[in-house]
Amino acid sequence: MKRADFEHWVRSELDAVESALESWVPADSPAGLGVAMRYGVLDGGKRVRPLLVLAACEAVNGNREAAMRAACAVELIHAYSLIHDDMPCMDNDVLRRGKPTVHVQFGEAQAMLAGDAMQALAFEVLTPDGDAVPAALQARLCSLLARSAGHAGMAGGQAIDLASIGKPLDEHTLRDMHHRKTGALLQASVLMGAATGIPTAGQWDALSAYGDALGLAFQVVDDILDVTQASETLGKTAGKDQDNNKPTYVTVLGLGAARRHAAELRDKAQAALARSGLANAAWLSLLADKVVDRDN
């Protein structure tokens, strides 16, 4: 598979996701709420999670309508989490995706409401009327997304993160935190895409292992970029974790070891993908490389 083909696929799918989000995130919500929601999710971000959903759907020849809805739903959950994480009561950041954070632009109360509304909208998007997405698939997608975003996943990981400021963490505890905070939603993206088709039990397990390794690799690379790239490249405040005395893979392992660990996790993800035996998994393979080789 040529790199140019992959880049064309990425551009095409990003345009499709942006168009769907444009249509599903309302501009006319009361008192400017829709404006804040659209500011928080449109025109920015790498959209790795939606791409994973769509690539996994293609790998299993799944339901495209369900996959697009899942891709947008997972991005809405991710964007809502960023809005809340950036607030003064959490990470207190002022820059996200190269522009002022939502609470800086619209105030803390509106940012909180925008995040709340986007979380609810994610599940509304997953449960359309009609027969395009069967009810059983709607329920499966909602279950996967809710579990990855809640106390056992993203929210639980953020709670550990906030409780760990200034405290030494061993690698096992750090891994658990990031498996929940970052990895769970990335893994769920892969599995939501897979759920739109009919994978075998072995293929499901292999894709789960792929998503698990890739989710952790994403966070390791994030920690590396936080200390090696400028804010202009990242689109967010560089060095924030170090300034906040937060434990990261770089502080626990060291920069060189963190880079090696990211490469090991990519290899683990690729090996799991190979085990799946899926004939149409090229985009998933190339996405694993894209996640680890990125510079923002």
Indicate the CATH topology: Farnesyl Diphosphate Synthase
The CATH first-level class comes to Mainly Alpha
| Rg (C-alpha, Å) | 18 Å
Average of the residue pLDDT scores: 94
Structural class: mainly alpha
Tally of individual helices: 15
Q: How many discrete domains?
A: 1
Helix content class: over 70%
Shape: globular
Q: What is the CATH architecture descriptor? A: Orthogonal Bundle
Give the full name of the CATH homologous superfamily: Farnesyl Diphosphate Synthase
What is the CA–CA distance across the termini? 24 Å
Query: What about the largest sheet?
Result: 2 strands, antiparallel
Strand order of the largest sheet: 1-2
Give the uncertain stretches in residue-range form.
none
What proportion of the residues form beta strands (DSSP E)? under 5%
* Count of DSSP strands: 2
Order of helices and strands: HHHHEEHHHHHHHHHHH
